[in-house]
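Exercise 7.
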Amino acid sequence: MMNNNSRSRKSTTKSNSPVSKTGQTRLLKKRLLRAGEENLLEGRERILVAARSCFARQGFACTSIKDIQVESGFSRGNLYHHFKTKEDIVHAIITQNLGRFCAQVEKTLLELKDRNLSLGDVIHELAFLAEQITKGPGRGMAFHVWSLAMVDPDIRTTMLACFENIRSALEAKIVALMTQGKIKKSKNTQELSVTLFGLVIPAFTVQSVFMEDKAVDSKQYAQCLEQIFTT
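Solution. The predicted structure, written as tokens, is:
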């Protein structure tokens, strides 16, 4: 019969075996790797938050990589570990903004899909989302994105993919409104969706920023467009 001391020695021997140690080492490496990845993501996001604050306070052109470093509290080497240039930071922020905005628009369109809404109601919902771009500290972000998209192929590709998602969702809504008899039927649904996108997103944003005291809010904008369409 095996006594308690024998069991204890056997258990100790088993836990100290090469196989057991190898398994423990692999588990430790996985945990360290996961922790390292989480730290990288947290550090990256911290830098982006700092950059947003600097851009909002000083503008893009007047913000240096040093400003972002000081705002983030990171050392220069730590910051460069995440981003090599200010342009890399700007690109990351633009990608985030476009993704969030497109997700908001698509969510709104999905929510509107099964509701009995007029074209004016749809325009109002989209104009309201566009209105958020022109408010707050990120007021100038949209125009900076547009200007960069003219010269930076990566930003342009990201922007086009995002806007195409919005356009295709708009086309689906237009087809649904035609089926319901809310707007006149047409074979040119793609052209209609492109036109509607241009009127609601870029055009609303431009008038909101540059018309100053003459600018209209999202509700007024939707009412005016609906009046033009139904005249």
